[in-house]
Specification:
Two copies of one chain form a homodimer. By secondary structure, the first copy, chain A, is α/β, with parallel strands linked by helices. The radius of gyration of chain A is 19 Å and the shape is globular. Chain A has one domain: TIM Barrel (Alpha-Beta Barrel), CATH 3.20.20.140. Chain A has twelve helices and twelve strands. Chains A and B meet through α8 of A and α8 of B.
Chain lengths: 348, 348
Amino acid sequence: MSRQFPDTFSLPLPDDFHLHLRQDEALLRYVPDAAASFGRVIVMPNTTPPIRDEHSLSRYREQIMTAAGDAPWFVPLMTFKIAESHTADAVRRLAESGATAGKLYPQGATTNAEDGVSDIRAAWPVFAAMEAQDLVLCIHGEDPSSFVLDREDAFLPIVDQIASDFPRLRIVLEHITTARAVDLVLRLPDNVAATITVHHLLLTLDAIIGGFLNPHVFCKPVMKRPEDREALARAACSDSPKFFFGSDSAPHPIGAKESSCGCAGVYTAPVAMPLLIDFFERHGTMESLRAFCCERGRRFYRVPPSDYEVTYTREAWTVPATYGDVVPLNAGRAVSWTASRPTIISGG
Amino acid sequence: MSRQFPDTFSLPLPDDFHLHLRQDEALLRYVPDAAASFGRVIVMPNTTPPIRDEHSLSRYREQIMTAAGDAPWFVPLMTFKIAESHTADAVRRLAESGATAGKLYPQGATTNAEDGVSDIRAAWPVFAAMEAQDLVLCIHGEDPSSFVLDREDAFLPIVDQIASDFPRLRIVLEHITTARAVDLVLRLPDNVAATITVHHLLLTLDAIIGGFLNPHVFCKPVMKRPEDREALARAACSDSPKFFFGSDSAPHPIGAKESSCGCAGVYTAPVAMPLLIDFFERHGTMESLRAFCCERGRRFYRVPPSDYEVTYTREAWTVPATYGDVVPLNAGRAVSWTASRPTIISGG
């Protein structure tokens, strides 16, 4: 194994620009896992009921802050779930109560997206209001009417059209999985970026259906072909400011995964940074690791540099079989890096 | 719905040219399901331990006959699992004790194929011995070293080579799933045929990973794209003698399917004929239904016309949620056709 990284190094506290934090007891259980590893996190709004207005948004933020406990570095950046019915006034009120982004779920595209947007064109006025308020548009970019492996590519023309019609709207195409999505994001202007998860960087569809069926890495969009994974890896390791980390970490209980109708989602929050460091040591550089996890995302979202840093040490540990009743990525296997508790950057 | 078929019609008792019958209690439980629907069945040899010699083959046949009980129409056609170490003498003894075919599993291609053939070229002398004994070569045509969706197409050049080197060897490419496999089988001489399962005729990869994860339709080779399914449907409904029914029906207990490492296989024996009749009524003709299920396979395998017939009646029934501890295809949903008990063809 190549060891280009020193055995101990520090990074600004990484951010996670796509995260599911759940509700109730699950929220209490899983927020601290995220807060142990990340500073600013973009919190997905597909709760039940969804985060649609400033009241539910503020209440959800408070619940998250309470659950985070003693983690002063942890800042949930709140989002709302876009509906065709959002008026310009509703969007303004969301912005005024601190929303960072709105999330577009095409109806039926993933978990809790039955109430997503069925006619994307009908949401154009919402995008206009978001552009006016300088809110970020986060997109789950899949056309659910297409064959499962074609859904992301089938949605790309809509992204292209939104970007063209709203040149000042910042747009994040979430958890991209295909070479064609990488190409589109590169071709579009600087107001369009993309997040990449750790599981899409490391795995292909082989991980789900190549051997025995593995429900614990089943997610939407599903991982694609080896050449798609390679395109994502090249994008993450490139010097383009357009590609940054969003984990899409999503804790589902064992019973909802090992089931006759298994839920989509991979729980990666506790293992994402060790796996990313390992990935960038093998395929990238310390500079690209830092850019992907700590710099590009916050610049795109216009949040300041972190006041905190983390020290990573080459010290292996075995990922637990479960966190609560959730099986994490790499369960039972060793990862090579241990993180310190975040500390304030001296002189920062 | 189109109703081109009469509400009651008879067919010669269908045969199933690819079937898993298990061992011990599972064998006792599931053989009668198969015997209720089919006459001649090609029995897969990937038991534990595998069927490799004339002794295990004869013993397995006896166990199956005992389990079938009062079903005089039911004839298991026995196969053995090919090993590089099979000598010409071993193959001759297998043929003399009534083997119909040998099955080639590339190592690691599917359930219980860890002891498959690792170097296919090393099995060339076995193919020569089988050709000399007029045994059929059944092939699980996947290259396990390829990406999961490419495995079947990656294996096709080997099929091409075997067919070219052994022009008198009858070869069945089992459970084909891709348009390219259809094309190759059509292009090769008449000694090469293919089986198609009911689940590959009806489903694409969408059924496994398109919505919630569905372990009960997970199989190897996995279902592919819509255009692949359409190519299989055209082949089944065509007048080519090369495509016939093999269910690959494989009962796996619920616990082995709804698991962190789910087994590959779909249990279709009790529902295959109702689903096939429905499929051919919509996409084919009564003639193509009869050819696919009752004629082409037995001609290729050189077994005589059945002495039995079955009457099918347009009478809906709901597929049970489980057979024993196995979830069948279409569990809990209605199918439209009810089969009579097989009866001797009068004057046959």
